[in-house]
Every structure is written in C-alpha cells, then in structure tokens.
Amino acid sequence: MTANLDDRNAALAQALSRVALGDRTALATLYKAASAHLLGVILRIQRDRAQAEDVLQDIFVSIWRNAQGYDAARSQPMTWLTSIARNRAIDSLRRRKAEVSTVSAHLGDDDDTNLVDQVASEDSSPMELMAQAAQARAVTHCIGALSAEQQQCVALAYYQGLSHSEVAQHLQQPLGTVKSWVRRALMALKDCLGMAGQH
After folding, report:
1. pTM above 0.70, yes or no
2. What's the pLDDT band for 124 if we cut at 50, 70, 90?
3. Structural domains of the chain, with CATH
4. In a 10 Å sphere around its CB, with 0-12 CB exposed, 13-18 middle and 19+ buried, how is residue 1 labelled?
C-alpha cells in the first residue's frame, strides 16, 4: 500500500514538474490521476454539482499557470492539489452567497402586474420613522428633567436590569430611598411623556 502511494506521489510530482514546463500531455495525465479525488473534495464544500465542476476546471487552469509554485520538499503533490481545491471551493461558495439574486418584477409578457409593489416592506415608513425620532427626543428630554439620583436609579434598573436591592447596594443607599426615587422617577416620566404626546 505504501509503495503504491509512493508511486502515485512520484507520478503526480513528475506530472506537476512537467506541467510547470508547459507540457499539455502532463496536464492531461494529472487531470486523469487527480480530478476524481479533487471533485470529491469540492463537493463536500460546494454541493451544487455544476458549480463544483466549474471550480474543478478553474483549479486545473490555475495549476497550468502556477505549477512551478509546487515545492515537493514542503508537501506531497496530492496535499498541495487538495489544498488548492478546498480553497477554491470555499471561495466559490463565498462568491455565491455574495451574489444578489434577482427576480423579474413582472409575471409575464402580457401581465402588467408589478410584483415588487405587492411585497410588503419590513422597513418603517417615513411617518413611522418621524414618530420614533420624536418619541426618542421626548424620552431624552423627560429623562433629562429627572434629578441625578432618579436618572441613576432608572439607568441601573431599566437599562442594566438591576433589582432595587442591587441598585441600593450599587448606590450605597437604603433600599426604601431607592424605591422612592424609582417610583417618583417613573411618575415624573409618565407625566412628562403624557404632556409630550399632547403636543
């Protein structure tokens, strides 16, 4: 078995060295010896058979141009070829994912229905965006009107998710005081936002 593997590696290395010299027959020999294995490697990454075969062709074009880059002292020929195949298959997959898939906006030649008009947008409408911006400004304004202690309590309790006792510990204040600050802050916010909503 080892002898067979050594013989195959020697044959592949020899074919690669001849390809590096521009020998087309050597490229055909290399293709015959390695293409099935390399296609298997590609198909494990790129499941689309037609795409995988295109990648295989690209690999052999690349080998034809870059065979002189193979260094027998650094790796076995099949290891080098497999590495190229794996990298090209991954690149192919990335390119496919990056491609924008397009669809026709119309059903057919006789139909004027624009399918794009029938797709509901998940984006907020301009009016909704304006309302959200106004609400955010109102919240910022109302929080700014709270005392420093109330702002701290609200931030710790509602933005950082601390319990009242954790807020009290963090601020080194009695629990009753913290609860009072939070309650007053929420009442003040409710009143302030209610007033903002009336404008």
Report:
1. no
2. low
3. 2-98 (1.10.1740.10), 127-198 (1.10.10.10)
4. exposed
